[in-house]
Here is the input.
Amino acid sequence: MYKIAVIPGDGIGTEVINSGVEVLKALSKSVQNLPIEFHQFDWGAEYYKKHGVMMPDEGVEELKSFSAIYFGSAGVPEIPDHITLWGLRLKICQGLDQYANLRPVRLLPGIISPLKNVEEKDIDWSFIRENSEGEYSGIGGRSHRGYSHDTAMDVTLFTKQGVERIQRFAFEIARSRPRKLLTLVTKSNAQRHGMVMWDEIFDEISQDYRDVNTDKMLVDAMTTRMVLDPKSIDTVVASNLHADILTDLAASLSGSMGIAPTGNLDPEKRHPSMFEPIHGSAFDIMGKGIANPIGSYWSAVMMLEKLGELKVTKLAMPFDDQSWETQQLPALQRVLGYDIIIPAWWIGNTSSVEPDSRAKAVMVEEIVHFITQFGWSTVYPDQFGVYGWSSVIAQETQRAACDWWQHPENDCPGSPAEYPGDCSDPSCDVVEFYQQVLVMRAGMEPGWLGIGFPENREVLEARLSDTLKAVMDDPQYHQLGAPLRFDYPVVESL
Here is the structure.
């Protein structure tokens, strides 16, 4: 049972969040094993008018018992914004150490960006905002009120621990996305202490993520890049203030603030995370029936994903060979923005436009690689994770390595690598190993066999552990169970 704390807040927050709750209730009824229990809290401006605070002092402690928090908005015109923000949203974020703010940005079908000549695939960004330090740390003060020398001071605070944890989180997000590109937004030319430390830590951490491509942009230059070259952006990490501004720009460039979601996350899962649309209270449209609920729906999807309940692999996995060819592969490519291109020269069949058996095998291999790394590994990390050695298939790969499996790029005692390189990282070795296991069990030609790999299914079945076979045979994971039959054209040139 998932216990969801619902805080609609103020303005249109009550409209869009209540609409989202209705969708989640319907989903809970239609999806097996998805029990959700909702507990609504009246915290917000009306609570403030009655009690002098936006939420009770013990409110944060009460929230710790919930699976997640579904938040609407905070604020009314007659209450100063700093009271509503610090009294509710920031109090929750800081009290539960939700230090990572994740904002996906996409140009959804049917929505037109204000940018010229921009297509859906051109805006597919992931912004990671540091959510606990920086300019919003709350350190500062006010003195000499009423005098000409009235003084106000806000202190920007950065700690090595805080910067390092948000940047590592960003690297993990970038690594999980197809392009594996991470941009650090900084202002180290002018902010010569805190932002310089951001730069230094970023350079250090990047050594642990050599598979992720990186670049850096000054925050003012980043605004220009977002407008003039949106296709060059993938994953972005920035400080609290910088990301706050950039993500509002990003939402506008993707068509509407009304569709933008966000997640305030505790990546360590010590406390519940909080999910919300970012559009605010918008009292000018309250009660008119025109508030856009898409941001609240998308935030709910992020919440389900964080809870491990977003089963997206069905987009990619075949229920039968016909649906795979005509519907599911195009859907996968459209939704995830990943192009699988097999050059003719790689296959060695340049004399004909018709793919031979080798071409088909290579196509299947690359598709399976992609589905494993960006589908199963993401949705079912305990079973199919490829970014460490703890998952079922990763442990199976380790067990088989140098016993009856060797990727040609890797060295094993008495069996030298056939090609220069290194595929020993799990994001490579596990993916390569599992592809051969999967397609051979489905009755297909793997295309090539790793050193020592069985030449037929019977021998393979005897080699595999019962643990792995139990996972692969479980219908909830939508594993390929029968040979695919298809006829894809070979790309003669790129």
